[in-house]
Amino acid sequence: MAWLDRAGWLVDNTVTVLGLLGERAGLEHDEPGTNDEMARLVHADATAALEQLVQPLAADEVSLDFILRGGHPLQATFDVIEELRVDLVAVARPLRRPGRNPFAEKIARHSPASVLLVPTA
Fold it and tell me: What residues have CB less than 8 Å from 26, skipping those under 6 apart?
């Protein structure tokens, strides 16, 4: 994200950082309240990770929003894109051969907004 900031793309814009938490069904447990406790812990960990990710932007006073969503990652991403009427989606894409990161490629192929695939190590 720092390079987007250095390039000036974040000035006068709101950056929404989306955390995808996956399906809650994976947090099933027999004891009452355990599912909610586990979900709360996952939510807190995800929030902390996102805040650490964008910490360098805080010094530049970039307008930031955080959204955490459960459910299928692709559908959750498309829902947020539509709800916020996003202009640009930046998606990390590991440096691998094409077809090895279906999430980034599906976002690029099916998103109603412009998509920037950001290579990562």
Answer: none
- Residue the block writes with tokens 């996003």: 86
Going by the DSSP 8-state scheme, the letter that residue 77 receives in this structure is H
Say if CB 65 and CB 15 are below 8 A apart. Answer: yes
Q: Can you tell me which residue has the tokens 């938490």?
A: 21
Q: Which residues pair with 17 in a beta bridge?
A: 66
Q: Are strands 114-120 and 88-94 parallel, antiparallel or unpaired?
A: parallel
Are 91 and 63 within 8 A, CB to CB?
Answer: no
| Rama region for 85: left / alpha / beta (φ>0; ψ in -120 to 50; rest) | left
End-to-end CA gap in the chain: 14
Q: Over the stretch 57-102, which tens digit does the pLDDT of each residue have?
A: 766 677 778 888 888 889 999 999 999 998 888 888 877 666 666 8
Query: Residue 89, class by beta-carbon neighbours within 10 Å (0-12 exposed, 13-18 middle, 19+ buried)?
Result: buried
**Contact by Cβ (8 Å): 106, 94:** no
